[in-house]
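Translate sequence into structure tokens.
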Amino acid sequence: MQRQIIYRCSRTGMNVQHQLDDAALQRPAENIRVSVRCPACASLHFVNAVTGKLLGDRSGPPPHVRHSA
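Result follows.
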């Protein structure tokens, strides 16, 4: 099964969609990052598999991400 994440490219500022294979993520945890080839800038980004935040991004979580209590 695949899961879609959306992240903001740090070079172009564009929102980018990417599909992750859930089978590749054994146990999705808050701190698991995957390398993604960005179609907006053709660079490699490290994206949090749960939140969609880029490695080094200090901003808060995107509004559509909800954490269970």
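Note: The chain has a mean pLDDT of 78.
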